[in-house]
Amino acid sequence: MSWIGKKILVAIVPCLCLFFFQRCQHDLDSTDSNPLTDEALQGGKNGTINLSTNASFAQPIPPMNTSDVINFKVGRSFFHTSWVMAPASTQAVDGVGPLFNAISCNSCHIEDGRGRTPFSSAEQLTSLLMRLSIAGQDLHGGPNPDPDLGLQFRNNSTLQAAPDGQVYVVYTNRIVTYPDGSTDTLRVPEYQFKNLRNGHPLNFMYSPRIAPQIVGMGLLEAIPEHALLAFADPEDNDGDGISGRANYVWDEEKQQTVLGRFGWKANVSTVRQQVAGAFSGDMGITTPVFPNPNLHGIEQTLYGNLPNGNESPGSTELPDPFFTNTVFYTQALAVPQRRNWTDVTVKRGKTLFYQISCAKCHIPQTQTGNYSDVPLLSNQTIHPYTDLLLHDMGPGLADNRDDYLATGTEWRTPPLWGIGLVSLVNNNNGMFLLHDGRARTIKEAILWHGGEAQKSKEAFMKLSKPDIDALIKFIKDL
Fold first, then answer.
1. Is residue 245 part of a domain?
2. Chain centroid to CA 305
3. What pLDDT, in 10s, does the model give residues 204-231?
4. C or N terminus of the chain, fewer CB within 10 Å?
5. Residue 33 pLDDT > 60
């Protein structure tokens, strides 16, 4: 069997069944105080599914044609593939490493959902990784890589190599007191690096990043740039204390600086580069976007000549069309529709969401433009609850590490669609919210807000318990 035939066989066999789910379109209650268009259809008419199970984040947009279904299946197989060390008898999926964090996309994005933090201080980080850098910027204005570790700490390696080291997290408690005297407990992370290779000093900056759920990424990519920039108010000209700034980042394929919209700091421009960056940084797999092994300094000297999964000189370990299939899979994942948007308490929570200004960053509704990558996602009215812009979130969440234009206290507003199903998709193991998964509940995530969101947090803490419950019930319905 040819090499391409092996790739196709590996891609198709695990994916014999693909289920489609019918959307249900519902009219809004005309008495809603903040009416939205087709509110239940968070991903628009073409990008929404009606499903509330642990597979809710792993479904395709419903109206696909046959050829798209095949591409989606192939991409899904590579998303779930466990890569192995080269050389191997299965040449279709060898080449992991030599340094890596995970052996598959799905091992971090569990069922296309969120990663998790360790269950104990003795467990290494798994679906929570560390971005690294040293002072200064690279040639394109991005973070300056550590000369011997690069931009990512990799705590796993193949047998012929040694990992960067180990990293663990220990949590301490912080008590938060409400105006009425009641309290809640937050957990504060502290990260510990151990056994760094060759005694590398702890002289780098680091930033923890948990794997987010990936539904709706194609829809977010389809939002026109001018629509996102319309949300920005970098000088706070309206005086509401909320700015919102765009990040501008290096696009490897265009070889120019463009708008960033993906990643916890909006530090990636496209889904294609997000997927390629994860293959390269997380798994050590080369692709057409990043065709060279992700090795730096002494790593190149030590491991640059080890066997890899390239079938011939100049090839990559995940070539086209399979890389593009994986990108398409990521772009074409549908968004689950809301479940209880007509519930009286949920509607009360929605009103409160607006009243305490959550909706100024978590923008409820926007429109996609013409989207050639997945034409079915063009011109959809969507409800992602994000502006994809950078906001200062205060010192409590700061990583003190710049990322292009993003400062050490700024983070991209994460989309809220699907948040109510996160725990279910994670098999009820928890929610692991915020950029490092420290928040175990929606309430904890809100209580960590500071900076531009400080007033909203304070307003939240002044609400009555029934109103707090209503607000959280609304968010859980997204």
1. yes
2. 33
3. 999 999 999 999 999 999 999 999 999 9
4. N
5. no
Residue 187 is predicted with a pLDDT of 98
Q: What is the full DSSP assignment across 17-62?
A: ----------PPPTT-SS--TTTT-TTHHHHEE---STTTTS-B-T
Helix (H) or strand (E) holding 124: none
Q: Following CA atoms 318, 322, 327, 329 in sequence, which dihedral angle do they give, to the nearest 10 degrees?
A: -130
Please check the confidence at residue 471 and state whether its pLDDT lies above 90: yes
Identify whether 181 is part of a domain. no
Asked whether residue 236 is assigned to any structural domain, the reply reads: yes
Q: How far apart are CA 329 and CA 215, in angstroms?
A: 10
CA 153 to CA 148: how far, in whole Å? 10
Please check whether residue 151 lies inside any domain of the structure.
no
Sequence letter at residue 377: L
Question: Nearest-CA neighbor of 73 among 130, 14, 116, 20?
Answer: 14
* Planar angle of CA 457, 461, 465, nearest 5 degrees: 135
264, 411 Cβ separation under 8 angstroms? yes
d(CA 62, CA 23): 8
**Number of domains observed in the structure of the chain:** 1
Q: What is the reported pLDDT for 428?
A: 79
Domain that holds residue 101: 3-113+213-292+308-476
- Eight-state DSSP code of residue 230: T
pTM of the prediction? 0.92
264-284 tens-digit pLDDT = 999 999 999 999 999 999 999
Query: Is there a contact between 176 and 186 (Cβ–Cβ < 8 Å)?
Result: yes
405 contact partners, CB below 8 Å, separation of at least 6? 141, 245, 246, 247, 248, 390
